[in-house]
Every structure is written in C-alpha cells, then in structure tokens.
TrEMBL record:
It comes from the Bacteria. This is Uncharacterized protein YecE (DUF72 family). SUPFAM superfamilies: TM1631-like (SSF117396).
C-alpha cells in the first residue's frame, strides 16, 4: 500500500499523535459500554510468498495460501475484488476455504470493485453494483462489511452523487466509505455535512492512518463501529509503529467505554514481509487492554529469528 508513503528519512519528523475525537464521534458514542464488543484484526491480502516458513508451511502452494491465512486471522480487508468484479463461483471457492479451515468467526471485508468506484465514479453504476452484490452474497455468514474507496480526485463536488449512490444500496448491507481528497477534511462545513450524511444513512467512515496523510485520521465515527486501515512503515520503524498501535489501543478503549460495538482493524505495510508481526502485536495489545480474546498468530519460527 503506497497511499501516504513518505521517504524513510521523514518518518521520524511526523507527528503521529491521534487527533481529538471529531464532532460526529461525540454524537455517535453516547451510550454505555457494549456487553460483548467484537474485534476483527487482519491484513489486506493473503497471497504473500514472504510468509512462507513464517506463518505458512514452507512448501505451501500459492493456491492454498488462503487455507493457511484463515487459520491465523479472523478477517481480511479483501482488496482482491477491487480489480475486477468477482464471479460468484470464485466467492464460493473462497468461502469454502474459510468454512473448512477457520474456527474463529472469520469474515471477508470486500472492497467495492473499481469499475464502480473509479471508472463509473458511482454514476450509472447500477449494473456493476448489482453484479458485485450478487457475487459477494455468496460469502454468506462469512461476509463482513464492504468498504467503498473513492479515488484521490473524487472531490466534494460529487457529494450528491455519493449520497444518492449510498441511498440506493441495500439497507442491510454494512458499508464503510473511504474518502481521500484533502478538501473533504479541510473545510469544516464540508466535513460536517459529509459525516452527518453518513450517520443519517447509517454508513461507516473508514479511518486511514498513513504517515503522509494525517488528515485522513479524521476520528469521526458515524456508527458505533470502526474500520481502521493502519499503514506501518516496516521493520526499520517497528518501534514507532508499535507506539502508534499503543495509542490506538488507548483511544479504542475510550470509545468502547462510550458504546463502541465493533472494531475492524487492518494492518498494511509498504513492504508486507513483516505485517504478521505488526498484526500479532496489535492482537496482543487488544487482548491485554481491550479484552478482545483474539487468538495470537502461530509463527513457524520465533519472531526474533525472522530477519
């Protein structure tokens, strides 16, 4: 994931402190702690050869990587369906792998296909949307929330287009929206209008924590659930990334105390080799301080021997 990537020498100068809660979060989280909040922690893809002899047995074939992935994680931010609208047969194949190899309540969180979001830009997108929805329903009980990522050049001039598109989605489809153009966050009036609209339509707002785009760490919750895309900076900056995870843990604790019900937390790296290490640290912190009880990743070799 290259979004928000900065040269390595700039990482130390970035202020990673999380902003204060946004106005919409204060409106959304007004209740008592949920009795049994749910936690989903995962990565963005399973097809990583670098994970052989790390979390996948050494001789695992690529076609079986998903079989191994679902043994370690209880969710995935499914980017694979972004590049083309998936067919139902492929989704069924993935679902069966989860059925046969996971016992952790695994969910797929599929990204909307780019035909819808980046090519059609949500206009006249009824046909591809119907095809997309028809396919992902094949996940059945393994379907988590979908996330709609709009392009970097999708500006507030498209507000009505976005609102209209979201209104016409099935009401029982859980959706989180990721916006990237700076103007969605820079203008207080636009920002307020955006998050109020998402709250009214009961759609979530993705929070993307990337080094070079601190404005996307908007801290606005429009529903009592969060979908966080955390982008780490790799082995060299592991201490910094762990400290960022610590701060997220503290903030999520505050939100849980105010009624947060579900946490979807997905780990990315510009170099994905050590993403399982970052993910496992996240699991450890959430289990220790948030009571999440997510099983830790079972590494084939000790983490200290991985590099």
């Amino acid at each position: 994931m290259d979004f928000g990537k900065v040269p390595g020498e700039q990482v130390a100068s970035i202020n990673f402190k999380l902003p204060e809660d946004g106005a919409q979060t204060i409106k959304t989280l007004t209740g008592k702690p949920a009795e049994n909040p749910a936690f989903y922690i995962g990565c963005a893809k399973w097809g990583r050869k670098e994970w052989l002899n790390m979390i996948y047995p050494l001789k695992t074939k690529e076609v079986n990587f998903l079989d191994e992935y679902v043994k370690h994680f209880n969710s995935i931010e499914l980017n694979a369906v972004f590049y083309s609208i998936p067919n139902a047969e492929l989704i069924r194949k993935w679902r069966i792998k989860a059925e046969e190899n996971s016992n952790n309540g695994f969910v797929f969180c599929p990204k909307f296909s780019r035909t819808i979001s980046h090519i059609k830009r949500l206009k006249d997108a009824e046909v591809p949307t119907d095809l997309y929805l028809s396919s992902i329903t094949e996940f059945g009980k393994f379907l988590g929330p979908c996330f709609l990522q709009l392009g970097d050049n999708f500006t507030p001039n498209n507000f009505e287009v976005l609102e209209t598109y979201l209104k016409h989605l099935p009401v029982d489809l859980k959706v989180f929206v990721e916006l990237r153009h700076e103007s969605w966050f820079a203008d207080p009036a636009i920002r307020s209008r955006l998050f109020e609209m998402l709250a009214r339509l009961e759609k979530g707002a993705v929070i993307t924590d990337a080094s070079g785009r601190r404005d996307c760490v908007h801290m606005e919750l429009t529903i009592p659930e969060i979908f966080i895309r955390f982008v780490g900076n790799g082995k060299e900056y592991q201490a910094s990334d762990f400290a960022r995870i610590d701060e997220w843990t503290a903030r999520i604790k505050e939100w849980l105390d105010k009624g947060l019900e579900k946490v979807y937390f997905f780990l990315h790296q510009h170099d994905e080799k050590d993403t399982p290490i970052l993910a496992n640290y996240t699991i450890q912190q959430f289990n220790k301080y948030l009571g999440s009880r997510v099983p830790e990743i079972q590494f084939i070799v000790k983490t200290g021997e991985l590099f």
